[in-house]
Fold each of these.
Amino acid sequence: MPRIPIAAGNWKMNKTSQEASAYAEAFLPQVKDFKKEIEIIICPPFTALATLASYFRNSPIKLGAQNMHWEEKGAFTGEVSAPMIKEWGCQYVILGHSERRHIFRETSEEVGKKVKKALEWGINPILCVGETLEEREKGETEKIVEEQLLLGLSDIPDAKASSIVIAYEPVWAIGTGKAATSEDARGVISFIREKLSSRFNVEISGDIRILYGGSVSPENVLDFLREDEIDGTLVGGASLDPLKMIKIAEETLRAY
Ligand code: PGA
């Protein structure tokens, strides 16, 4: 089966729920007729999930969270769990984003526990992997990506693996306006696909979608979408502007 392409927006720590309503009002009319051939996913802060869930109900837009804890409940002040985001209508959750790994010191083992828990709750994880500039310059890109990938997927049975999405996001390309070239992204993404096929059976690993993220914009998105190996994009800064996100979704629909 062909993999359904994804246009996902990661708002990071931006927009109150009131601002999210204004966004939904601008965004929804433009994308409400999009068919099933593409998945559009918006990942706002936790505080805007409930608001967006009510706008996106009965629309083709899916909702994702930006993080979650690996336990379901307990004494974890400030954390939010899989059943909580599920109740808010999340079908996706971004896990192991580089800002979580680098600013909040999340380890790949912790990310792996989160991936497992998300799948237990029927939430599709978007597992982010990517090297820093220093690691790239030392020629360690594949080593780092492989380590993050395998630890992130360490306890996942084949039966659940096909709903996982991987996002290759080189850290040096995030929020810098300096996207990777599509050739570079394709190279690492092909490497990820190869690792997935030795981790899971070939059929299942062939269902896993792999996205590129890092300074994606309406102007450069097509370069990535033209690569057969790239199944869509994870968009940060540009996703904050509904018009830009609409354009990215349209280009994604057109490209596949
Ligand atoms: P960016 O962020 O598009 O602003 O570079 C991407 C991301 O962090 O997911």
Note: The chain has a mean pLDDT of 96.
Amino acid sequence: MLHDLVISGGTIVTATETYKADVGIKNGTIQTLGYDLLGSEKIDASNKLVLPGGIEAHCHIAQESATGGVTSDDYRSGSVSAAYGGNTCFIPFAAQHRGMGLLETLDLYDSRSLNSSVIDFSYHLIISDLSGNVMEREFPKAVARGVTSFKVFMTYDLLKITDEQFLEVLHTAKEYGALTMVHAENSGIINWVSEKLIKGGHTAPRYHAISHPALAEVEAISRAIMLSKFVDAPLLIVHVSTPAGANLVRDARNEGLKIFAETCPQYLFLNRKDLDRPGMEGAKFMCSPPVRDSETQEALWRHLQLGTFDVFSSDHSPYRFDETGKLSKGVDATFQQIANGMPGIATRLPLLFSEGVNKGRITLQQFVRLSSTNAARTYGMLPQKGSISVGADADIAIWDPNLKRVVTAQNQHDAMDYTPYEGLELTGWPTSVITRGKPVIMDGQLVGDHSHGKFIARGKIDLTGIPGHQALELDIEKNFGANLTS
Ligand code: DUC
Ligand code: ZN
Ligand code: ZN
């Protein structure tokens, strides 16, 4: 058979295997895995690794925060930066702010992503306003559009929902086979400490971390797990930043609960000392939850090695270090007035490859799971995405495992003016990236087309093998079903 494109001579790595073979691509999907394949076009992958393209499952693109700041990356620059980082698909957030409907929110993000992305995409829908029966009227329609993951916040005054509303989201999502995601930090602790700090004149970026103590995360993760357990609904805890929080996740799993979790590079590679940089420099390293200490970094690596975390995501939240972003309230802004978040969509996978695979902390199979396959499974895209197998989308990243490169703001190809990893030398980089059979990056050059990336409608969450929990007090089917009459 004559393929449209053949990737020849490389070493294929999947979540379970490493072997040498050619990949034959036709009509955007993988048609053949074999030897001496014929193709109209050929990419020589000798001495390279051929991996499922990365799936970036947590990033903020063309998104307003509740306080009005807008991320610097849109779907054009964000998707290009993601592709340079070895990604073939990403799932940014579509943020419902109060007063907006859920479908109105999705329409807005559809207009922002239209003809803009060089890689495929979907959205997680943030829910901050449950008024007007949106859960009954609009939630099912969002799921029918292929949006099957929903994020809620336990903190931030303009976003947070009550425990009652959290239960409602968990319960409704469960009914429709969707996944709830949560930003788990205790709002009361953060607000109380912040007020005291500000009153005491402690306003520098470093106090952001002090106002978001580890216990705030641990309390909220614990509560979130209990709420999910009570209604036996799947829940994914995003950006876990503490060993105690990760231990709660591990124990919940061990108990058979439907708990999933994510951590991010900043919690493994950055720490509180970065926030102590002079002047406003520390603002570049502000994110929520905050980066912590070196013991935390080591403990989170161990959780990553042992499989506590299903997904490893960048939490790319790009705010420039200028008056459009971090410094929008001036150079004397308090930590409460500085946008939270840092860029990292292009460094997520090179960091994990260099410091994980090349330093012997994780295997190549673990790398593939954490970079792609687990996200595809968790977010309802497997086997279309996240695997190199016959019939899957031809989403492929070709990696040179020995290539050394120094990270600079410029080689992120995003709309940012800094990277928190400036000057770090990493070994192992993606050199070519192919989305649905079309080259996006070839030998380090952008060749992709902004109308190629398409919205991926996602399926239900796969809970096979997870027993869950039946609350004795609560028979959801009997007491909460649609036919409830008394
Ligand atoms: N939560 C995120 O997921 N990203 C940026 C900041 C935040 O609070
Ligand atoms: Zn969050
Ligand atoms: Zn985020």
Note: The longest helix spans residues 214-231.
